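tool=predict chain=A
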Amino acid sequence: MKEGKKSPEDVTLETNVNKIIGETIRAQRKKLKLSAAEIAFRANITRAYYGRIERPEVTASHFILFKVSRALGLDMNSLYKDTEEKVDEYLQKNLPDH
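tool=predict ok
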């Protein structure tokens, strides 16, 4: 495999991680009863980009996730811990050799 090219398994895993992160972020935003526009404003990112994170259309950088987490009153550890637990469940079901 060429360096930089993702395997189908990596693409699937990345998509799943993005989905879990988006769901976690959306759930926290709704729990706080805040609009997506308000979180985007607090994180100093565009509303459109924030929406793409929640819908998992992008792989956000750690820095962007840090800013969004802070805007939601989360720390990065809790965001990634929840994501890691759900990804582990996904891997056990779908990619048993990992």
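The mean pLDDT is 89. The longest helix spans residues 8-31.
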